[in-house]
Recover the amino acids of this structure.
């Protein structure tokens, strides 16, 4: 497939179309709009892997009984700055926002909050939750595990044993945009392999191994017949981070860790340990912001290396993509769009009606 098969959509129209599909699951109130807004926002920020292409997976999960609609976090532990929450398999876009609201409120009272959210359905782009906290002036640290299928191999291993297990850190700034460091501990997010496969693209070497443990550039090994595996970034270092995310995001939140054969389920559960810190309570002499600004100025004074147009920090590529895609729209490959229309059909929606809404 060529890029000429891509279709370009505008955000407002696409939100309405995706909300219609989500509502057809029985999701009600704010939830369909929350899910649609979150997914389209991921596309706008350049992360198509976490955008509307997730809808077919969500619908399959709902139909098999994995994803539960209209859920709120259940409080397991309430001990001041410590919160233990259960997402009850609800839409991550909904229970994630509610859980973060609770954690933000506690951090504003106590100066810090440690929140464990277990058993949420796919939480989407974790940077979204860091942005929610940073918008309230809080530092946010997130360790997340993925209970879906073991798509990532440990360093030195020849088969998948855990998920893409993201880590995310958000830091507020006073005179410039916040730092939002958000990355999978695998070489690349699983969703990016789905996007590459749907576009008929090969990927660069060093990302994937086949079912025999040999290097491959074919994303189908983790998409169509998931017998291969992704590799961790940075060899043993990424593996170490993935292990920590599994234990803190999974075991400590009571969401669970992965330790069973994959049975083909479509559900995607996340556990997320979030640590929120109010920097103004930890440092009351303005040292944090003044030192942060001084360092950022020093950082940006570095000469630009050959082959680069500028020096960027975490969060900047997303802001640049959003400024561009809000104006121009964002492209969706034909296979992904067809999968979304088929998902709508599974819920007895008219694909033509969904398409008409999306086109605007």
């Amino acid at each position: 497939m060529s890029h000429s098969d891509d279709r370009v959509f505008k955000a407002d129209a696409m939100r309405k179309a995706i909300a219609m599909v989500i509502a057809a699951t029985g999701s009600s109130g704010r939830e369909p709009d929350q899910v649609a807004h979150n997914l389209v926002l991921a596309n706008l920020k350049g992360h198509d892997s976490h955008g509307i292409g997730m809808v077919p997976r969500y619908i399959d999960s709902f139909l098999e009984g994995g994803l539960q609609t209209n859920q709120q976090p259940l409080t397991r532990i309430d001990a001041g700055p410590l919160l233990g929450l259960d997402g009850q398999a609800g839409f991550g876009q909904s229970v994630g926002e509610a859980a973060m609201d609770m954690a933000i409120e506690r951090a504003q009272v106590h100066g810090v909050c440690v929140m464990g959210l277990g058993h949420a359905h796919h939480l989407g782009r974790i940077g979204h939750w860091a942005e929610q906290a940073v918008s309230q002036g809080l530092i946010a640290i997130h360790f997340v595990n993925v209970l879906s299928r073991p798509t990532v191999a440990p360093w030195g291993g020849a088969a998948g044993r855990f998920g893409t297990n993201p880590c995310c850190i958000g830091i507020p700034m006073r005179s410039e945009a916040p730092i939002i460091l958000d990355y999978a501990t695998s070489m690349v997010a699983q969703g990016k392999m789905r996007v590459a496969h749907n576009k008929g693209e090969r990927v660069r070497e060093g990302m994937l191994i086949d079912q025999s443990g040999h290097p491959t550039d074919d994303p189908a090994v983790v998409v169509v017949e998931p017998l291969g595996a992704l590799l961790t970034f940075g060899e043993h270092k990424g593996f170490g981070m993935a292990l920590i995310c599994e234990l803190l995001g999974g075991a400590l939140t009571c969401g669970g860790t992965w330790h069973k054969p994959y049975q083909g389920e479509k559900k995607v559960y996340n556990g997320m340990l979030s640590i929120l810190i109010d920097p103004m309570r930890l440092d009351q002499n303005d040292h944090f912001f003044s030192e942060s600004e001084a360092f950022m100025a020093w950082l940006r004074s570095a000469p630009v290396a050959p082959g680069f147009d500028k020096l960027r920090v975490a969060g900047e590529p997303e802001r640049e993509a959003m400024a561009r895609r809000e104006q121009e729209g964002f492209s969706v490959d034909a296979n992904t769009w067809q999968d979304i229309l088929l998902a709508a059909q599974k819920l007895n929606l008219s694909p033509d009606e969904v398409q008409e809404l999306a086109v605007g």
Notes: Residues 92-110 form the longest helix (19 residues). The CA atoms of residues 211 and 225 lie 10 Å apart. The longest strand covers residues 112-121.
